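call fold(seq) -> tokens
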Amino acid sequence: MQQANPFADYNRNKILNASPAELTLMLYEGAVKFCNIAAIAIEHKDIPKAHENLIRAQRIVDEFRATLDMKYPVAKDFDRVYEYLQRRLLEANITKDKAIVEECATHLRSMRDTWKEVMRINRMGQAGQGGASFSA
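ret:
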């Protein structure tokens, strides 16, 4: 029997088998992608597509904010950043301002790249400790 959509199956398995750290990275990548799509849609005056992708980016930022563990002091700093991004993404969606979308994408790329570095450093540290698992 032939699979209906091998690409969808691959992506579903990738998500189901990802560590919490990898899932976080995927969310950052998704938020950046949706901002990029929205910026291009704004440029081409495709308002529904811009709206849809800005909503997707907003939902990812909402998820980041909702899952912060506030018992850690750094969580308050992340909450302020995420709150700012939520506000700017909403403003971008209302005004369809490409510059605001690009600003948000820049912040999200920076956070994604920092997260990648944290993952890399953790892998290096874990390699010296018998390969213990990462917890986000």
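Residues 18-112 form a domain with the Four Helix Bundle (Hemerythrin (Met), subunit A) fold (CATH 1.20.120.340).
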